[in-house]
Known about the structure:
Oligomer: single chain
Radius of gyration: 43 Å
Order of helices and strands: HHEEEEEEHEEEHHEEE
Strand content: 15-25%
Distance between the termini: 94 Å
Number of domains: 2
Number of strands: 12
Helix content: 10-25%
Largest sheet: 7 strands, mixed
Shape: globular
Structural class: alpha+beta
Amino acid sequence: xxxxxxxxxxxxVHRFARHAAWSLFAVMTGAAACxxxxxxxxxxxxxxxxxxxxxxxxxxxxxxxxxxxxxxxTAVEPEPDPAPVSAFAHADLDPDNDQELGPPPPIxxxxxxLAAKGVRFKSARIGVxxxxxxxxxxxxEQVVRYKRGPGDIEYSSSPLLTCxxxxxxxxxxxxxxxxxxxxxxxxxxxxxxxxxxxxRKMALYDLVSEHSFANGIDLRRFHFAxxxxxxxxxxxxxxxxxxxxxxxxxxxxxxxxxxxxxxSVVVTPYFDRAHRNHIHVDLARYRVDGSRPSQ
Length: 295
């Protein structure tokens, strides 16, 4: 028999007893069902101090709504760390400007930076020549005559270079002396080069050469303390697996110049016959690794 007993809050025994007696009386006398035919008996109002048991249908759902469901997450591989930048880096590493033409833009305080590197130089002027669609195809705004650098290397003639290329040449000397000591156990005293500034296209390609902007140099022969030399034409020997030690020096130097980002472009006899007698280096906006055999 349902005695109509509800859930209660509190510990008031007398109140509980009164309410239970009233509920039992209502069931036995039919008072709770009195009323017109078909009418639903009204539930008695709870007495003061009681809390009705909540209707199960009114309870909040324990099933999460779509908005409350935690979204599934997919594990994302972390981005690889960027390649470390060498202390000697001057190469243009921006992939978005590879198609841009013309001389390099001036570098702020470039001559002060040359002086800070211990470079002896002289300011120079070559102007700019013919333009195509407003872009100079020859010359550059910021040029110096390179006299002596931190590696204390003498050149067959003072290179005429953009100021940025002169900064790179200063760091080239430091790298070259490191490689010479490691491979030959002696330092470089002088370098013969084949030129820097020459308004022309590349010998084998329909492209403007960086020589047109005084932004490159061709290295032919290295002279070391004690009289030893490393000549690119004689010693590089691209078709041999094991060249003489002078050839190993040349190959190792070319690898370092590209890998350490000293220059954007490094081209050796591995690349083509036009470079069989020299190593070409420059600061083009694109990168070319011609320091290794083609795959």
